[in-house]
Amino acid sequence: MIRMAKEMRVDKKFDWLGGKGDVKLVHIMEGDEFQKKGRLFALNILKPGCSIGMHTHKGEMEAYYVTKGEGLFEEGGEKKPIKAGDLGYIGVGQSHAIENTGTTDLEFIALILFE
Length: 115
What we know:
Distance between the termini: 27 Å
Order of helices and strands: EEEEEEEEEE
Strand content: over 45%
Structural class: mainly beta
CATH topology: Jelly Rolls
CATH class: Mainly Beta
Number of domains: 1
Largest sheet: 6 strands, antiparallel
CATH superfamily: Jelly Rolls
């Protein structure tokens, strides 16, 4: 199967999970395509100054692979710089947030898999 870019569902979240501004999500895979092993595989796009608020992953893990831009990845009360080529990983039961601190879009692929 091939899904063309124009066929991928796009949506926006506003002030997502207590963050600032909006997040554009391009859903790469959805629903039954995960075969009950996950729930999200999407390109996330944050404009400068926008963020996804602190949230906890219960029964699932999440990875952010940054493809463009730079920002701050927060975990365990510590903020760390993240940029294109970096991976942010959150294990089951952990919490995290991300903010675009750069001057261009921060783009990252997010993958959420179940425990």
